[in-house]
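Support request from a user on the community tier.

User writes: "When I paste my C-alpha cells into the form, the page sometimes reloads and wipes my input. The last time it worked, I copied everything first. Here is what I submitted, just in case something in the input itself triggers the reload:"
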C-alpha cells in the first residue's frame, strides 16, 4: 500500500494549490456492487463550503474541509487523498495450491506483516501493468496469466484510497529488485493455511484479506 515510501512512478504537482471548490460534491460513479435496494446514486446530503491543504507529500495529501452536515449544521471533515492507486496480487501456484506471501515490517503499525505483494500505480496507468511491475520488483516473478479479482474502497470514512486486486498463475521466477525502503521475506504458503492465518489474526492486512476471501468465495460458489 502506498504510505511512506514511493511505489511506482509519480509526477510531483503543486500540492499546496487546493482543488477547486464545487458548491456540492458531485456523486462519483462506482463499480462497487449495490447492496440490497439501496442505490449507489442517492443524492449527496453534504455541502462543501471551503477546502484547504493541511499537509502534503509526494504520496498523500491531507485536506481540511469546512462543510454543512446532512443535519444542516456546520462542521469540518478531514480527507486523506492518496496520489496513487493501491494494487495487490495473489501469486497462486495452481499445481501445489500455494500462495506467495511477502513479509515486511510496517512502519505505520509498528509490527511485522505477512501479506500478498502490494504497491501503487499512477491513475493514468493500467492497474494490471502496475501490479505486474510491483510483483516483479518485490518477488522477481513475471509473466503468467492474470485476472482481476475485485475493487474496493479501503477506508472510505476518512480516505479516498481505492484498491484493485488480481490473481496471477503460471508465473516465471526471476531476480527481485525491491526498493531501499523494503526489506522483504518471501514465503510460499498453502492456500488453506493462508485462510487459517487470516482467521487466527496472523494476517491483518486488508488487501490480503479481501483478495483471499474473494478467491475462497469463488471456490465455494463453483463447488455449489
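"...and here is what came back when it finally went through:"
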Amino acid at each position: 500500500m502506498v504510505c511512506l515510501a514511493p511505489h511506482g512512478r509519480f509526477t510531483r504537482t503543486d500540492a499546496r494549490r487546493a482543488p477547486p471548490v464545487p458548491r456540492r460534491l458531485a456523486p462519483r460513479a462506482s463499480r462497487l456492487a449495490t447492496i440490497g435496494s439501496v442505490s449507489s446514486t442517492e443524492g449527496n446530503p453534504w455541502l462543501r463550503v471551503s477546502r484547504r491543504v493541511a499537509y502534503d507529500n509526494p504520496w498523500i495529501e491531507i485536506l481540511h474541509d469546512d462543510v454543512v452536515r446532512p443535519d444542516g449544521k456546520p462542521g469540518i471533515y478531514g480527507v486523506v487523498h492518496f496520489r496513487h492507486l493501491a494494487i495487490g496480487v495473489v501469486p497462486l501456484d495452481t499445481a501445489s495450491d500455494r500462495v506467495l506471501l511477502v513479509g515486511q515490517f510496517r512502519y505505520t503499525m509498528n509490527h511485522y506483516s505477512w501479506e500478498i505483494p502490494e504497491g501503487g500505480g499512477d491513475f493514468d496507468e493500467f492497474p494490471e501493468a502496475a501490479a505486474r511491475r510491483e510483483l516483479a520488483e518485490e518477488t522477481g516473478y513475471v509473466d503468467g496469466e492474470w485476472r482481476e479479482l475485485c475493487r474496493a474502497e479501503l477506508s472510505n470514512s476518512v480516505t479516498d484510497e481505492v484498491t484493485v486486486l488480481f490473481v496471477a498463475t503460471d508465473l516465471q521466477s526471476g531476480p527481485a529488485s525491491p526498493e531501499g525502503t523494503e526489506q522483504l521475506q518471501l514465503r510460499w504458503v498453502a492456500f488453506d493455511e493462508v485462510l487459517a492465518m487470516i482467521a487466527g489474526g496472523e494476517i491483518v492486512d486488508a488487501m490480503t484479506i479481501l483478495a483471499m476471501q474473494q478467491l475462497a468465495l469463488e471456490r465455494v460458489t463453483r463447488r455449489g
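Agent notes: The reload is a front-end session timeout and is unrelated to the input. The beta strands are 47-56, 60-68, 74-82, 85-93, 98-106, 111-115, 118-121, 145-153, 162-169, 185-190. Helices lie at 127-139, 191-199, 206-223. Escalated to web team.
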